[in-house]
Amino acid sequence: MPENPALALPRPSAAGNLLRHARYVLAGNPVTAFSFLLLLFLLGCALLGPSLVPHDPQASNALRALQAPSAQHLFGTDQLGRDILSRVVVATRLDLGIAFFSVALVFAVGGLAGVAAGFFGGWTDRIVGRLADTIMAFPLFVLAMGVVAALGNTVTNIVIATAVVNFPLYARIARGEALVRRNAGYVQAARLTGNGELRILLTTILPNILPIMAVQMSLTMGYAILNAAGLSFIGLGVRPPTPEWGIMVAEGASFIVSGEWWVALFPGLALMLAVFCFNLLGDGLRDIVDPQRRT
Amino acid sequence: MLRVALSRLGTAVPSLIGVVVVTFLLTRVLPGDTATYFAGPVASAEAIAQIRAQLGLDQTLPVQFGRYVADLARGDLGTSLGTGQPVLHEIATRLPASAELTLSGLLLAALAAVPLGILAALRQGSWVDHLCRVVTTAGVSLPVFFTGLLAVYVFYFLLGWAPSPVGRLDAFATAPPAVTNFLLIDSLLAGDTETFLAALSQIALPALTLALFALAPLARITRASMLAALDSEFIRTARASGLNRRTIVLTYAFRNAMLPVVTTLGMVFSFLLGANVLVEKVFAWPGIGSYAVEALIASDFAPVQGFVLTMAVLYIALNLAIDLLYGLIDPRAKEG
């Protein structure tokens, strides 16, 4: 780089810097900008969807069963004559909700456990490490099935199961980040000014790790959506007639062989779009927050 | 080499213990009283108490754990409530179907992903590179059960190339004499081409579905590690020494780039074992995944427990195999 204009300018605030960097990255990376728009669209569906949809997602009508997409029913109707477009839109809230709460749960539990393991070391580290290793010894989706089977077949337990299988990932990342910071200059300064270890952990280390963990949240949201949809596809958690993408694909599966493709296609596409959005967003966020790990 | 193998075996033991403890704990957190559940809705209090004693549920947790481990050691995984069959027997008869499907998927994925990743790394920015990117993005975003259904619609309903997506062999074909219980291998051993083709046409779609899913991480890591290897100093030296391109790429870069790929293979296998459950449901494949799903829906816990345990043991065994393979590929790892 021949010259850096930022050197000549007065040093901007950290937040302003990040914002400028975000704008710079977004301008140079239209894909990330697109994924932001997609996210806004999904959030719009989740928040406003139920009041915007053209039909009642639960209203069945035997006379209109299994109709192909038309002007009146853009995505067609299912075996009970329910409007698939309305059901797909309304399901957004539940699908994103399950994924979001499971990621938030593992972010809190796994993140804290990992930070503590990296910062304190010793037996805390050994316990957290052993726990993470044990979870990693299972194929993750299989363990999630086992957890739901054991805890009971409810939506809450799908959230918990998805959080459990993500625990090792979060714990490891948080541990690694805490480990490199445990004796950083600012931590020693905090220690020198008389802060207790727990206080340092919560007020000094944790805020520094949050941005990296936030990227991880976005990257695992996609996986969490897939995991939850997979569980409901095999009949766990969400029960019909509740609209949910995984279960709608499962319901449509029996009509695929007789050619009624729209019943499974549209919820499947919605699922794909959501996962795609969070994966792109995660990659883009990483470029903004953690430029060194750019691939 | 033997000593290395033994020490690797030693590292698998803690994982195995962890798996046994977790599968045990999973049964103990079952909501509600297991004995009441086993006894059925009309059982009297004495009957429930009797069943509780029979199941050992009146004992302390460590004693129950001891019984569980002893049962496992005798190969007793309990009895399915739904079918009345011992779980071990059911899993043993269904495992070959799952293994054949998963391994075919993994093999297809590796055969496609490694050349794709290498070509993408060699010709950065070319159409191969873009294809690689599209495939890897699609592979991680597409739910595997959805890909399977799309494949059924296109290849069975629209084109009519694939047979009806039900099971391993259609009703008119006769199963070959069981040797390995892998239909593809058994039919070839028996010299029965007709059955082989029938089995192949049944397994093609589910295996391709799994392969597309496993392709993404493998192609991605192959491309990345190939790029890293090609960029390194020993490749520069090899080039400067005037070695031909073929030797440089295949002998020097490829062998070094394989290490991260083999490591990723373990992770991919974990995903595949999970995805296998979904694919088995889509294609009505008579493997242990569909067995576990049926049991899960019926709240029949012993098969689920046996299934989780079997899958975890398989996964640990595969990771062990990968560790050993690592030693063969990387001479430095032998000492480790």
From TrEMBL, chain B:
Does the UniProt entry include the keyword Transport? yes
Q: What is its main location?
A: membrane
Under the heading InterPro entries, the entry gives: BPD_transp_1_N, MetI-like, MetI-like_sf
Q: Which residues form the ABC transmembrane type-1 domain?
A: 95-326
Q: How is the protein disposed in the membrane?
A: Multi-pass membrane protein
Gene Ontology molecular function: dipeptide transmembrane transporter activity
Q: Which CDD domains match?
A: TM_PBP2
State whether keyword Endoplasmic reticulum applies. Answer: no
One cellular component term (GO) for this entry is: plasma membrane
Q: Which Pfam families match?
A: BPD_transp_1, BPD_transp_1_N
Provide the alphabetized UniProt keywords.
Cell membrane, Membrane, Transmembrane, Transmembrane helix, Transport
Which parts of the chain span the membrane according to its record?
12-30, 103-122, 134-159, 196-216, 257-279, 307-329
List where in the cell it is found. Answer: Cell membrane
Matches recorded under Gene3D superfamilies: MetI-like (1.10.3720.10)
Family classification: Belongs to the binding-protein-dependent transport system permease family.
- Its name, as the record gives it, is ABC transporter permease
Source organism (scientific name): Muricoccus nepalensis
